[in-house]
Amino acid sequence: MSVDDRPLASFRVSMRDIDIYGHVHNSVYLDYCEDAVVEFLRHREILSHFRHTSSGVAYHVKKAEITFHNPIDVDDVVEAKVTVEKIGRTSLSFAIELFRQRDGAHCASAGFVWVCVGLSDSRPTPIPDATRAALG
């Protein structure tokens, strides 16, 4: 496994995430994906670019979508891979893949679109050059 193939985030599923059918509730997958993106930014040492207090801008989720492939159960370890799919003028897209560690099953594919906005008006604003370079 190459460095680029290794998961950047992994976590164990808690009982609180389980629905009445005995597997992770659909909405919780988005929490896992959001945590994976934050871990991706932390791993790249660029999380400060996404904190409004240090970057002068904020990022709002414009779109979140997920496709479910296999269920995740309590006590499973979930591994997440994150990639930057696209960097636009005011938005950026992440692709997130979730896998079950015990058997490598691909459990979900997700995508987030974040929009960079100004702090004073919450209107779209260009992604700062330093952030764009750090992501590239």
Report the span from N to C terminus. Answer: 23 Å
> Regions with pLDDT < 50 over 5+ consecutive residues?
none
- The helicity comes to 10-25%
Helix/sheet category? alpha+beta
Main beta sheet:
5 strands, antiparallel
Work out the oligomeric state of the chains in this entry.
Answer: single chain
Report on this model:
The protein is α+β, with helices and mostly antiparallel strands. Helices cover 21% and strands 37% of the residues. The two termini are 23 Å apart. It has a 5-stranded antiparallel β-sheet. The longest helix has 18 residues, at 26-43. The mean pLDDT is 92. Pfam families: 4HBT_2.
Could you give the topology of this structure?
Blueprint: E1 9-12, H1 26-43, H2 52-55, E2 57-68, E3 77-87, E4 91-100, E5 106-118, H3 129-135
Question: Key terms for this structure?
Answer:
fatty acyl-CoA hydrolase activity; alpha+beta; Thioesterase family protein; YbgC/YbaW; 4-hydroxybenzoyl-CoA_TE; 3 helices; 136 residues; HotDog_dom_sf; elongated; single chain; 5-stranded antiparallel beta sheet; 37% strand; 21% helix
Brief overview:
The chain is an alpha+beta fold. Helices cover about 20% and strands about 35% of the residues.
